[in-house]
Amino acid sequence: MASITSMVFYVLIFLSVYVQVFFLVTFFENRRKIIIKNRKTKLAKYPTITVIVSCWNEDKTICKTIRSLLDLDYPKEKLKIFLVDDGSTDNTWYLMKHFEKQSNIFIFHKENGGKHTAINLGLQHVETEFVACLDADSFVHPQALNRMMQCFLENKDIMAVIPATIIYNPKNFAQSIQRIEYFGSIFIKKMLSFLNGLHVTPGTLPIYRREVFDRLGGFRKAHNTEDGEIALRMHQHNLRIDYCHNAYVYTVSPDSLYKLYKQRLRWYYGFIKNLIDYKHLLLKPKFGVFSLLTLPSGVISILGIVFLFLIFVSKFIDFFVKEIIKIQAVGINGALHLFKFDWFYFNIKSISLILIGCFFLVVFTILVGRKIVENRFQPSFYIIFYIITYSIIAPVWFLKAVYNVIVSERPSWR
Amino acid sequence: MTPQNDWKKYVIVFFITATLFASAFYFTNYFYNNKINQLKNIQDNISIDILSSETQFSLFQELSCKDVNNSVLSQEINNIADKINYSEKNFATDNTDIRYLKKYYSLLEIKDYLLMKKINERCGTKNLFILYMYSPDPTCTDCVKQEYVLSVLREKYPPLRIYSFDYNLDLSAVKALISIYKIPLSVPVMVIDGKNYSGFKTIEEVENILPQLKDSLKLQEKTLDIKPTIKSTQ
User: Fold this and answer.
1) Distance (Å) from the C-alpha of residue B202 to the closest C-alpha of chain A?
2) Contact yes or no for A25/B12 (Cβ under 8 A)
3) Domain covering A1-414 in this structure, CATH number
4) Touching check for B155 and chain A: CB below 8 Å?
5) Which of A250, A258, A259, A313 would be a feasible disulfide site paired with A168, CB 3.0-4.6 Å?
6) Is A240 helix (H, G, I), strand (E, B) or coil?
7) CA pair distance B234, B226, nearest whole angstrom
8) If pLDDT is split at 50, 70 and 90, which confidence band does B71 have?
């Protein structure tokens, strides 16, 4: 039994390291293509675009979100903003009405039916060449739209572009460690975009050619992760998603570890459920890296982290039981007296060395992500806090997500 | 547009990952061998110590005991037991090296035990002995507890010499010891003054079985008290 456990463990670790090395090799192949632009971007032409903002009880952030859209450095006549209230019970609708007089803002109200129904309502009225979606708790950098549209103009094959999401104004510990996590995510998404393997078009201003919806239809109810489902559907039809690392969208993040847990539970529950729905995309060479690397790495991450966590817990329990036995045998004083430091007992196992290697790779991805966003390659203590905290809490949401999938219990949105 | 797969890259990444794993295994093996060599060196030192003591004992038995008494058998003999047990539990799955070391160590222990007994008889020294039989099986919780108790006793009473043996060790000398003292299978078992004590015994229980332990401590305290007096008179 023990040997089977170690074998499974080593296979999972090998696959996890394989994925990390794949990203690293991709980085060294493409590093010259990662150009950090801080200046204003002028486009040869400005295609028409509609940004759909779906809102449900977002009265705290909606005004700031709309203002950030109005501040976009994009011709007003080319940009339409659809504000869709999905049956909010707070002041969201009244706040939206304040912007009604703006010539390019259109507001809609409907019964609550979920985020996908709100976006689909907006889609029904879209007449522009491009469509973007924005969560009402996210704020757009003035140059974001120009830089993303540049990607479309440079490559006709690109059907959707997603921006770099950054945590907005992190105020506490939970938000500060998420900021670090998002830096790492920027690196991974950039590498996945080089490989045509992006697996999600998050609600922070993904832009689609309208043709995508003409061909695939609108958003579907997809286990509260509609942005993941649409990406899966796009890959199913071999529609390319690109990543614009220079286009920044700031998002309000969960301000406590519990809220973070709730958010991630929803994300990973949705990921697993969507993966089950689209299992035919797994390990099919015709779908490229997305099928051979992105989706399997998601599965490996969930299994690997859960497995590592369970092994760690069993080791900890083992240690704890031994200490209790020691105290039972010789008392606390005796137990303290028995402790002696000797380098001999410092056990260097191969797996420890590999995990240390993984740690440095994670730190590297975070630093490169930060370099892309802030143009500085500077370490932070929060990297350590992020790794420690996520090592403890991430397995919990992964385990709970797997459990929820097994018992078919859908987590709530908030 | 159908995506193209860069198979060459998949293979290259596989080899890089495999190389990383192989390097990690190589370093682990290197550290493991280092530790095994460390244990071998300690055992060799013990072996030399014992041989030296035996020779010293033979040389002096015609004359005086006082120098023999001071010939310190390597103190490492106690520590090495812990290290071998630790290695057995934590190192590579193939424990051939460690099993060999364990056999060698058990033989050294028996030699040390016999020599110390001779010294006690011939010179009237007060070394106290416990032969301890255990099982390395982690389900033997009493064995684990007993090891902690004996470690504390060893620290507390320096004249106490504890010789621990794996009951299931495939070594004729250990089997002979089991047969001579009629040691039952129900480990942990301690042999004190020729008597068997089965099951877990607390510090107090061992102290009661071996009352000379406390006397040895008093004797040691007296010796320590005398030393400064002598110095001050000088």
Assistant:
1) 7
2) yes
3) 3.90.550.10
4) yes
5) A250
6) strand
7) 13
8) very low
